[in-house]
TrEMBL record:
Claim: Phosphoprotein is one of the keywords in the record: yes
Molecular function via GO: DNA binding
Residues with PTM 4-aspartylphosphate: D62
Name of the featured protein: DNA-binding response OmpR family regulator
Length: 138
């Protein structure tokens, strides 16, 4: 590609986050960065409804949710073939089998976009040039 950015394969994102300020902030920032935010939810039950729909490219999920665990969201995403990246302060070992990786909190907007771009590169089989601090891909 000459003088341009590669088109992202990740466009449609579901945010699963129970901290209202973090959820609101991520949703608006990612929209401004050109992503299509399908929904922002704070409960496992709501997340499962969206995962069951067509066209999701990525789920960003916290581990601790108001009605359960992001691990349940990750299991459902895996069953539906939807990649998931945990965005959390504490990632349990069993998450490694359910997700593409984890972006550890706290993170800033630039690190969040860089993490999504790294996941996009990994899914496409490309080399990840500069992963952001706090990103651990499994």
């Amino acid at each position: 590609m000459l003088f341009g950015k590669r088109k992202r394969s990740i466009q449609r994102i579901l945010i699963v986050e129970d901290e209202p300020l973090v959820a609101f902030d991520n949703e608006h920032f990612l929209r401004d960065a050109g992503f299509d935010i399908v929904a922002t939810v704070d409960r496992v039950e709501e997340a499962l409804r969206f995962i069951d729909t067509e066209g999701l490219h990525l789920v960003l999920a916290d581990i601790s949710l108001s009605d359960g665990s992001g691990l349940d969201v990750a299991r459902a995403a895996r069953e539906h073939g939807v990649p998931l990246l945990f965005v959390t302060g504490q990632c349990p070992p069993e998450a490694r089998d359910l997700a593409l990786g984890v972006l550890n909190k706290p993170y800033n907007h630039r690190e969040l976009v860089a993490a999504i771009e790294a996941v996009d590169a990994k899914m496409a089989g490309r080399t990840i040039k500069r992963p952001p601090p706090g990103l651990d891909l499994f």
